[in-house]
Write a structure and sequence with these properties.
mainly alpha, 7 helices
Length: 151
């Protein structure tokens, strides 16, 4: 039994040596990465955020209580559209994965900001309200620390 295994693996090694090993593959240039992955990924992110913003503002004009949910639905919808439909068009098929990643990150960010506001600050943009609330929290924590030190 062991002789059969040895013969089988010996032959395959010889065959590989005869064929020669292919040259090592190098990483693509940075411009290729930017054009083929980062650009379409950012486009998917921006399009998803824009569609969710437009959907939430338009729906909130007609039904204010549903505005928040419309933005979340639009974000999930753009992710599903990128996932299911991007490979249908030949010119867009090679950018399907970056579009999925970008729209998925945007959908996740939208859902976290809308439905989990306690951790929404982690994925939000740097706004003046965020800065003032963080400064207010630091001042109140500092004041609480001083009160505890004097006791």
């Amino acid at each position: 039994m062991s002789r059969k295994l040895q013969r089988r693996y010996k032959g395959s090694k010889r065959r590989r040596e005869r064929e020669g090993s292919p040259a090592p593959k190098h990483n693509p240039p940075l411009t290729m990465d930017l054009v083929e992955f980062i650009g379409p990924g950012f486009a998917g992110f921006a399009a998803s955020r824009f569609v969710s913003y437009v959907a939430s503002t338009q729906i909130s004009k007609r039904a204010p209580s549903w505005g928040k949910h419309a933005g979340a639905g639009a974000a999930v919808g753009t992710f599903l559209a990128a996932w299911l439909l991007a490979n249908k068009w030949k010119w867009l098929a090679k950018y399907q994965m970056p579009l999925i990643v970008g729209s998925g990150i945007a959908a996740l960010q939208t859902l976290v900001q809308l439905y989990i506001p306690r951790v929404g600050w982690m994925v939000s943009d740097a706004s003046p309200q965020l800065d003032t609330s963080a400064a207010g929290a630091a001042v109140s924590a500092d004041a609480a620390g001083r009160r505890g030190a004097h006791r």
